[in-house]
Specification:
Distance between the termini of chain B: 144 Å
Radius of gyration of chain B: 39 Å
Number of strands of chain B: 23
Helix content of chain B: under 10%
CATH topology of the largest domain in chain B: Immunoglobulin-like
Strand content of chain B: 35-45%
Radius of gyration of chain A: 33 Å
Number of helices of chain A: 2
Strand content of chain A: over 45%
Distance between the termini of chain A: 52 Å
Number of helices of chain B: 1
CATH class of the largest domain in chain B: Mainly Beta
Helix content of chain A: under 10%
CATH architecture of the largest domain in chain B: Sandwich
Structural class of chain A: mainly beta
Largest sheet of chain A: 13 strands, mixed
Number of domains of chain B: 3
Order of helices and strands of chain B: HEEEEEEEEEEEEEEEEEEEEEEE
Largest interface: A-B, 56 and 50 residues
Strand order of the largest sheet of chain B: 2-8-7-4-5
Shape of chain B: rod-shaped
Oligomer: heterodimer
């Protein structure tokens, strides 16, 4: 309490609070330190009011801020710019300040008022002509914080550092969600997508009794929920517009049946394809998988949908491609007939020797990959031509010779893994039959450098190499390369490989950058990271307390699929809830 | 008749004599004994031979460029004390800041103090018009030491920052001496300087930094001495209580890990990532300095007896494409982390999680059991 007064009256001295309690008021028993509330905290919270609109940076421009509470007797101000204290002018009573804002960026105003908790107010002063760009942030609070993740789209001005202000992460509400099947509770995987922020996914698992405890955001919003039962015979289902009080009811869905046939081997007659795995994706919801019986028949459970994809994964050793057809005209109540095309025929790689520089490679792992525009047809009420993807793996023996391995005839590619991390990509045209040998070129040394335009480059910057093309089809991993002294990087990469290059500098000296799919031979000798601005903000739990230990990721706002999910830059909130990310500068006009 | 009158006056007590005081004088003292540029001096005066010892005091202090034989020359005409416009200060004790330089910019070498003191009756105190001369010496550099480091762990870099200035000289003329004292029997440690950006808006201060990489636990002492060209030296110490390096802890992983007995269904290419790792030396994302945290990803394919290490996948994220598998396949995807100590994990390969300090809250291994859908 501020302004406590002591009044001596004979031997009695009473402490009276100065805040509205006069001598004639009941004195009570407030202790001299004013801590009558028992909380021990400050009696008030200082507050900084920034005059709007905040000026644009210019010679003579001034930022005006005033303090609350106004009746205080002492105001201690601090102003920092770019981490350095700067000077300012204060009003006669000290309750307001004017800060010269000739430079654009983030000005951190601090205020101490005796008896009150201090205030900090970051203020962004924009460059003249700043271009605004929408940026997408994903914030995942620390595990155990009982705060659901947040997905944000915020406009960021270019040309200078920018502060997003306080971002409130609201404590979630623990909801018990029940998944019910025809016979009671069902274990299931659950994915909740809030209607207001569809990408702020919340996951959960219902146990054997069908109950899941999930932290959902506060409020009366609805969700789109994906429920994938863990028991056979029940179809995954999506629940749009779901409210937390409603049980999630799953059932067998639509029983979809059909057959898979392939050209006769040998001969033109169709033959049932046994051991193939069939699944449907109905408006993004996968069905249960089904394996074809000896007669090629299958039955699976799916939910009806508008856009339906039928996918068939052939059994190992069949030499057939994966088959996929998507249509809005499929009628899932009709039998689904999958017909592999007669062409292009098959080639057996039995005995083909995998070599490197003329020497056989024992134990080499070969993955033949390729795409076929026409791999067959799918008929379900309507007929649709199916495309094909070849992903056929085989491992060479001790002499480097491949075992019997059927692959489609045609222009394909081979990804050869000679050893852990040692790969090669080579064209593999089987149109003329199986070759006697298959050469795996040695890994190719590439050198590049990461710089922000200043010598000596950016040591510690990283490039994530995301495989594309044949390497991606062969499930090659994402590689991370870290720049050493001078920002240089030297690495051996698979000859013939293609990668997407994703640059980021964990120390924020340059902005993240994505270089689209390119062969390793086209990797440039150096890459200049775009100019970065520091995007800052303060995470507050329920708008009050700092939220430390949360991850803050910058994601592509205009991307889809994997590109939308791979973070461009990452940071963690500190003890004060503050975070800072280096993001591409939207620039100025 | 006169004698009668005089005797009458004496006897009746009607005679009054006003006491006559001698002319007051003062004594004044200057503290401290050694005066330096940029420092403060306290001037105190005491009146003697006055009725109340109260009075008024008019102080003036001038700066001079030379001090020889207890005499000062080359003094500025206007005094620097009292400051312009402040003529009301008549206290017996005043505090005076010594400017580092004369009006000409030359260094102040002496001050001349003049006191005009009067009793409360207006009598001028002695000695009059006496100028007391005091030598003004060099101001030692101002030095501030602090550390910037994520932690104080063995092997982790500790940046020691020295911010320094010289009130009566250019900071560029100050030389720094660095000494590090290691705990007994500690191996030699790296203690290299590194570049620090100077604040162009504050040319009066400079910063310098050294990066210490401690090699043993215990108290390390960093001593920094700032010395100006006149020999003024300021020495500060910074004690660093270095503790053993602790294992890193997985703090966040995405997507969620299924409970025991359950699997995570994956039907589209999915990013598996570890956004946050806590570590005293190698946190992720890095804080201030590059991190040497290593991520290792491995996969246990359906039917395989051995985990397949994803060689080269040393980043915090990996992509699992279900198209590389057959729907219905069960796959285990595993991530393990190691800081620069590269301590081996003590757990069996079958353990889904693993923790070096046997604390469930600090994991170095996490495993997703994935069902391809």
């Amino acid at each position: 309490m501020t302004g406590a007064r002591w009044i001596a009256h004979g031997w009695l001295a009473l402490a009276l609070a100065g805040c509205g309690m006069g001598a004639g008021d009941a004195p009570g028993a407030a202790p001299p330190d004013g801590g009558g509330s028992g909380s021990g905290g400050p009696a008030c919270a200082a507050q900084i009011d920034v005059a709007q609109p905040v000026p644009v940076a210019a010679p003579g421009a001034r930022l005006h801020a005033s303090a609350q509470p106004r009746g205080a007797t002492q105001f201690t101000w601090r102003v920092q710019f770019d981490g350095t204290p700067i000077d300012f002018q204060r009003s006669v009573d000290g309750a307001a300040i004017d800060v010269a804002v000739e430079r654009a960026g983030v000005y951190i105003l601090g205020l101490d008022v005796p008896g009150c908790s201090p205030a900090v107010e970051p203020v962004s002063v924009a460059m003249p002509g700043a271009v605004t760009q929408t940026m997408r942030l994903q914030i995942v609070p620390p595990q155990g914080a009982a705060v659901p993740p947040i997905e944000l789209l915020r406009d960021v001005k270019g040309g200078a550092d920018f502060d997003l202000g306080a971002i409130s992460a609201l404590t979630g509400r623990l909801i018990q969600v029940v998944v019910l099947g025809p016979a009671g509770g069902v274990p299931a995987y659950l994915q909740f997508s809030p209607g207001a922020a569809p990408d702020a996914i919340i996951e959960g698992f219902a146990d054997e009794s069908g109950v899941a405890a999930v932290q959902l955001p506060q409020g009366a919003g609805t969700y789109t929920v994906l429920a994938v039962p863990s028991v056979t015979g029940l179809a995954p289902r999506r629940f749009p517009g779901w409210s937390p009080s409603v049980a999630l009811r799953v059932d067998a869905g639509l029983r979809v049946s059909g057959t898979v046939v392939r050209p006769g081997v040998p001969g033109p007659a169709d033959a049932p394809l046994a051991g193939a795995t069939v699944r449907l994706v109905s408006d993004g919801v996968p069905s249960t998988p089904a394996v074809t019986a000896a007669d090629g028949s299958f039955a699976l459970h799916a939910v009806p949908g508008v856009t339906v994809t039928v996918e068939v994964t052939p059994p190992d050793g069949s030499g057939l491609p994966r088959l996929s057809a998507t249509s809005t005209a499929f009628d899932l109540t009709a039998p689904v007939q999958v017909q592999y095309a007669a062409n292009p025929g098959q080639v057996d790689l039995d005995g083909t020797v995998v070599k490197r520089q003329g020497a056989a490679v024992a134990g080499a792992r070969l993955t033949v990959v390729g795409a076929l525009a026409t791999a067959g047809t799918v008929t379900a009420g309507a007929m649709k031509v199916a495309s094909g993807q070849v992903r056929i793996a085989a491992t060479a023996g001790a002499a480097g010779a491949l075992p019997p391995t059927l692959v489609p005839r045609g222009p394909l590619a081979a990804v050869i893994e000679v050893g852990p991390g040692d790969r090669a990509v080579t064209p593999f045209d089987t149109s003329g039959g199986a070759p006697a040998s298959l050469d795996a070129p040695p890994m190719q040394l590439i050198t590049t450098a990461v710089t922000d335009g200043s010598a000596p480059g950016l040591p510690g910057a990283v490039i994530d190499l995301v495989p594309t093309g044949a390497l991606a089809m062969a499930a090659a991993p994402v590689l991370r390369l870290t720049a050493g002294e001078g920002g240089t990087i030297a690495a051996a990469l698979p000859a013939g490989g293609h990668y997407q290059l994703r640059f980021q500098d964990p120390l924020g000296r340059g902005a993240p950058m994505v270089v689209a799919d390119r062969p390793i031979t086209a990797i440039a000798s150096s890459y200049l990271l775009p100019a970065a601005i520091r995007l800052q903000g303060t995470l507050l739990r329920d708008g009050k307390l700092a939220l430390p230990g949360a991850s803050v990721q910058l994601l592509c706002s205009a991307c889809t699929g994997l590109d939308a999910a791979l973070p461009l830059a990452s940071a963690v909130s500190g003890a004060d809830g503050r975070f800072a990310l280096a993001v591409p500068d939207p620039g100025t006009r | 008749m006169r004698a009668v009158a005089a005797a009458c006056v004496l006897l009746t007590g009607c005679f009054y004599i006003d006491p006559i005081f001698p002319q007051p004088h003062y004594q004044f003292t200057v503290q401290p004994d050694v005066i330096s540029r940029g420092g403060m001096v306290t001037l105190s005066a005491q009146l003697k031979n006055t009725e109340t010892q109260a009075g008024s005091f008019e102080w003036t202090v001038k700066g001079c460029t030379s001090f020889q034989g207890n005499a000062a020359t080359g003094c500025d005409d206007p005094p620097f004390y009292p400051p312009p416009g402040n003529t009301d200060d008549s206290a017996s004790t005043v505090q005076v800041g010594i400017p580092p330089a004369m009006m000409s910019g030359a260094k102040i070498q002496a001050i001349v103090v003049t006191l005009d003191a009067r009793s409360d009756r207006g009598a001028k105190a002695l000695p009059e018009n006496t100028n007391e001369v005091y030598a003004v010496g060099n101001a030692s550099p101002v030095l501030d030491l602090h550390r910037e480091s994520h932690s104080l762990a063995v092997g982790g870099p500790i940046d020691v920052i020295a911010a320094y200035s010289d009130i009566d000289g250019a900071p560029g003329d100050v030389t720094l001496g660095w000494t590090v004292t290691a705990p007994p029997s500690a191996p030699a440690a790296s203690f290299e300087s590194f570049a620090i950006a100077q604040d162009p808006g504050d040319p009066t201060h400079r910063k310098a930094g050294r990066r210490l990489i401690p090699t043993a636990e215990g108290t390390w002492d960093v001593e920094v001495s700032a010395r100006d060209p006149e020999g003024g030296t300021t020495t500060h110490h910074l004690a660093l209580a270095v503790v053993p390096d602790q294992p890193p802890c997985l703090r966040q992983w995405l997507p969620t890990v299924p409970p025991v007995g359950a699997t995570l269904p994956v039907s589209v290419p999915t990013v598996f990532q570890v956004p946050l790792v806590d570590d005293d030396v190698d946190p992720y994302p890095p804080i201030g300095a590059p991190s040497q945290l290593a991520f290792a990803w491995s996969i246990l394919r359906p039917g395989a007896s051995r985990r397949e290490v994803q060689a080269g996948a040393t980043g915090n994220a990996i992509v699992l494409d279900p198209a590389a598998f057959t729907p219905g396949d069960l796959v285990e995807l595993r991530v393990e982390i190691a800081d620069r100590q590269r301590a081996p994990l003590p757990c069996d390969d079958a353990a889904l999680t693993c923790s070096i300090p046997s604390s469930a809250s600090c994991l170095q291994r996490q495993t997703w059991r994935v069902e391809v859908r």
